[in-house]
Design brief:
Chain lengths: ~250, ~350
């Protein structure tokens, strides 16, 4: 797949003796929603961290939109159009919901050595931020402090922040983590709305959501890819069933 | 947008008015000591305001901020000693040396975090302290007196205490106005994002180091100006003004007054220096009925009272004095609208 937007080759990461990512190959073409699944400790978050640049890989290559970004720092990857949401909610809790998204917009609006104008009244920041909040259905909570909204709303805010930078690709780390059934359904709907407009790499535990949304699925076990392909293929793969799906009732 | 009519804003307005009218009170009562005390309060408030930019708004626990007081002060005093008495040279020089020092300290310390950051800023301040102690030509440990205050070509006579007080006050208000603009700007939003969650700031695309460094240099430079003022105020500089306990005082002022608030550091400086000044006398008076002979001595232990007082404020009034005022304002507002709380 030469024209993949994101191409990962033989990626590896070790923490001491533990192999977190072992020889991983993934290619995600433009417009695809690619899910990465795997049991706990399979190295999914480590993989996303390497893709977003929070962790630097020990070996292997990462290509994004034709450029080698293996050694590019996190903030610059974000400028290239790779946006990440966090599994553990990582927000600016003492700022308002709108402030959170406005900061994400500001990150992509040139340098911030602007010392004078009031950023909270800057339409260039506030308008796109409001638009991103509307995309995830959080506009009515814009002026509430981020620490005061619910967990489900935190997840949506995470997503709005990732969208605010007008990314080419979203790296979503368990957006449904800790959500109740209603909130999960709302998140699936939101993601379905984003599908095709963005290329998405989705790491998720919620199998129902994954099989409902993904174009292709890669299965990680102990940092290693054991299968990759269309949802039907993964569902019927014996190795996958044995390693992972067998223990899950709802598949 | 007009500020809301809350207790907190009324207190702030009263404080500003009181500071502006203080010389009038001094002229009426002849209480010159108050003018000296308040000049010191205003200058230290400016130093605390500058520390608040990095400590309160950006969450950087710098434990060496008094170094800039010393560097600004020594630059002024040394130039004076060498025959350069013009304030037009002295003050920009004080700003420049402070900025340069902050740039070096910041470039090295801001790559670290937490305790390491505290230790490195502390170490640099102690280095400045020992450097000043070692400058035999400029008095070493004994410090250096200024023969004359900074000259401004006859435009300002700083030797006049009232004039000097107003110069300090205008510079304090100017600093607060600057901090107000800065913290609401894009730059200020970055700082507040860093305080809140720096890892996330990098993940959404901010190269945080350069913004932190810029804030560090701005704060150091502002404090350097306060240093030039304090040298003029006391007509004297000594290494002790850079000692680490001095940096501690500045942190106490910021925390006591309210971190990350515009006027908090002013409240903090006022409260700490007032306590430092009057607590000994209060304690002596309280002890006198029981033990007249040792009453004066008891006053020396004023810090035994100050310590718990700080503890109570930090434990029960998160947000310091400013936070307390805010809580009272909310309480008042709620009691005015029954059925709302």
């Amino acid at each position: 797949m030469a024209d993949a937007l994101l191409k990962v080759e033989r990626l590896a990461k070790r923490f001491g003796g533990i192999v977190a990512t072992d020889d991983v190959d993934i290619a995600v073409p433009e417009g695809e929603l690619h899910a990465v699944i795997g049991p706990n400790g399979a190295g999914k978050t480590t993989l996303i961290s390497q893709l977003s640049g929070t962790l630097i890989a020990d070996a292997g290559r990462i290509h994004f939109a034709g450029t080698d970004i293996t050694r590019v720092p996190a903030w610059r990857r974000s400028h290239l159009g790779l946006a990440r949401s966090f599994q553990i909610t990582s927000l600016f809790l003492d700022l308002t919901v709108l402030d959170n998204v406005a900061l994400a917009v500001q990150a992509h609006a040139g340098h911030s050595f602007r010392f004078w104008g009031n950023a909270r009244r800057d339409a260039d920041l506030r308008d796109p931020a409001r638009a991103a909040l509307e995309q995830v259905g959080l506009a009515h909570r814009a002026d509430v402090r981020a620490s005061l909204i619910s967990h489900g709303e935190h997840r949506l805010l995470e997503l709005a922040m990732a969208l605010a930078g007008k990314p080419r690709m979203l790296l979503l780390d368990e957006p449904m983590a800790g959500l109740g059934p209603d909130e999960s359904a709302r998140m699936v709907e939101t993601l379905r709305g984003l599908k095709r407009r963005y290329t998405i790499l989705l790491v998720e535990h919620d199998m129902e959501a994954v099989f409902a949304l993904a174009d292709r699925i890669t299965v990680l076990v102990y940092g290693r890819v054991i299968a990759s392909g269309a949802p039907d293929l993964i569902r019927s793969n014996d190795q996958v069933r044995e390693a992972y799906l067998g223990e899950d009732e709802n598949v | 947008m007009t500020p809301a009519f809350t207790l907190r804003n009324v207190v702030i307005a009263a404080l500003v008015l009181a500071l502006a009218l203080l010389p009038l009170y001094v002229a009426l009562t002849g209480d010159r000591f108050m003018l000296t005390l308040f000049t010191r309060i205003v200058i230290m408030a400016m130093a605390a305001v500058s520390l608040n930019l990095i400590l309160g708004y950006a969450g950087m626990m710098s434990f060496g901020h008094a170094a800039y007081l010393g560097i600004g002060g020594y630059t002024t005093a040394i130039l004076c000693f060498e025959g350069v008495t013009s304030g037009f040279v002295q003050w920009p020089a004080a700003l420049a040396t402070s900025a340069l020092f902050a740039l070096v300290v910041g470039a090295l310390s801001l790559r670290t975090r937490g305790v390491y950051f505290i230790m490195i800023t502390l170490a640099f301040a102690q280095m400045a302290y020992y450097l000043a102690s070692g400058m035999a030509r400029y008095g070493g440990d004994d410090g250096l007196s200024l023969d004359t205050r900074s000259q401004f070509a006859g435009l300002l006579k700083l030797s006049d205490k009232t004039t000097f007080y107003y110069v300090c006050l205008v510079l304090l208000f100017g600093s607060i106005a600057l901090i107000w603009r800065l913290t609401n700007s894009r730059f200020g939003m970055v700082l507040q994002g860093v305080r809140s969650n720096e890892a996330r700031m990098r993940a959404i695309g901010f190269p945080t180091f350069r913004y932190k460094l810029a804030a560090f240099v701005i704060a150091g430079t502002m404090c350097g100006l306060a240093g030039a003022l304090i040298a003029n105020h006391t007509d004297f500089v000594s290494p002790s003004m850079m000692f680490w306990t001095r940096s501690g005082d500045l942190i106490v002022m910021v925390v006591l007054g309210g971190m990350g608030t515009l006027f908090g550091p002013v409240f903090g400086a006022l409260a700490l220096l007032f306590l430092e000044q009057f607590l000994p006398a209060v304690i002596s008076a309280a002890v006198r009925p029981f033990d007249a002979a040792d009453a004066a001595k008891a006053g020396e232990y004023w810090q035994i009272v100050l310590g718990p007082l700080l503890l109570v404020i930090v434990l029960f009034a998160r947000g310091g004095i400013d936070g307390l005022l805010r809580s009272f304002s909310d309480l008042l507002r709620r009691s005015k609208r029954p059925g709302h709380g």
